[in-house]
Amino acid sequence: MPHPHPILPSITVALAGWCPLSPTAAQTTQILVEPPWRPAVLWDQVTLTCKGSGTAGATTWYKDGQRWGQKGVNHFTVKESGNYTCDRPGTKLSPPVSVLQDPLVLQVQAQPLLEGDTLTLRCRFWRDMSLTSVRFYHGDEEVNRPLAGTELSLSPLQLNHSGQYHCRVQ
């Protein structure tokens, strides 16, 4: 019986441009993810914190587009996979944060990426069980790296590093 084709975890790396803060930036609501990797995985015991202006006690959370949880809770440990957003009176809804329950995931640090930075991608299997023969791909091309392991480091980050990455494991 043939093996089903594995679903390969992938991630898109996009470099952010630099711009000065505008007055509207202060009105932006964001979700702080701990540990600071995206996409987050449920088996990491992820904590989400709503950050931004407005009263922390007036925070409203949404899961998969539906109002969720107790109003006024500013942070919590995630117990269910899904897409989470938050807001407070007078601010805009935060960008969504995905929390997955996938057994194999490719993660990137949860931070804006600028040229010259060091970027680490890590390929992880359920609760960090041991992986052998991890291969990273940028588009369809395998990425040559000096050391074996579950991480790929891109440094210094350049515009040609942008694009889709995925990992394969045995």
UniProtKB/TrEMBL annotation:
Instruction: Spell out the PROSITE patterns in the cross-references.
Output: IG_LIKE (PS50835)
Looking at the Swiss-Prot or TrEMBL record, what is one Pfam family this protein matches?
Ig_2
* Classification via Gene3D superfamilies: Immunoglobulins
Domain of life (superkingdom): Eukaryota
This protein's UniProt keywords: Disulfide bond, Signal
Q: Which GO terms describe its cellular component?
A: external side of plasma membrane
> Which one of the record's GO molecular function terms can you name?
transmembrane signaling receptor activity
Using the record's annotation, list all stretches that form the Ig-like domain. Answer: 9-86, 95-170
GO terms in the biological process aspect are: cell surface receptor signaling pathway; immune response
Q: Where is the secretion signal located?
A: 1-26
Listed name of the protein: Ig-like domain-containing protein
The species this protein was found in: Zosterops borbonicus
